Amino acid sequence: MKAIGINGSPRKKWNTATLLEKALEGAASQGADTESFHLYDLAYKGCVSCFACKTKGGKNYGRCAARDDLTPILKKVEEVDVIILASPIYFGTVTGEMRSFMERLLFPYMTYTDPPGTLFSGKIRTGFLYALGAPEELARERGFDKHIAANEMLLKLIFGNSETLCSFDTYQFEDYSKYYAPRWDPEKKAKRRSEVFPDDCRHAFELGVRLARS
Ligand SMILES: Cc1cc2nc3c(=O)[nH]c(=O)nc-3n(C[C@H](O)[C@H](O)[C@H](O)COP(=O)(O)O)c2cc1C
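# flavin mononucleotide complex -> structure
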């Protein structure tokens, strides 16, 4: 069994990447071969609306015709059992790199039918992990949950299944005294980091276990 992780954070060791690592450890604990990709290491663009993936009888029907660093990853998706996406929330939604990745991953499979359907022939168990600086209530107040729910629906539509995990109120800086950020209380942030983030990591591990098992 094969599980891949996609890190949509520019930081390779912070909240998002740590959650993803834990989820992949969970999958590996069930015997999955795991591999992760850092989107910020890759050169690619989002969908360019060429519509080769929707061209009747076209050789790229149902596939992304663009060729760049995402091409081998999109090819790999056809062979995996589990995909775990992970992204920070930037301005209320996933990072630009994750958004571009999602366009390239999902749009070729999505049919322009009413209701939309999927051209993906198999089933992939998917998970989406999010790191948010905002506490949960604020995230909901701002409607971030709507974007997150929409992503879950989209993954379910294309691949047949999806689970979501959010880590709220994340610890953003190594040393809060170095940055102008009066909005956040460094002591509260540190407490959350030591008391709640380990639980978030445990939940990410368990998500990886569930996806690899089911
Ligand atoms: C450009 C930028 C925009 C952000 N926008 C939001 C936001 O809209 N909502 C939020 O909850 N956090 C926001 N954050 C905070 C990040 O989501 C949070 O720090 C997260 O933990 C970052 O992921 P990382 O720890 O993997 O780097 C933003 C951070 C940056 C750098």
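# post-check
The chain has a mean pLDDT of 97.
The pocket of flavin mononucleotide is lined by residues 9, 11, 14-17, 88-92, 131-134, 139, 170, 172 (CB under 6 Å).
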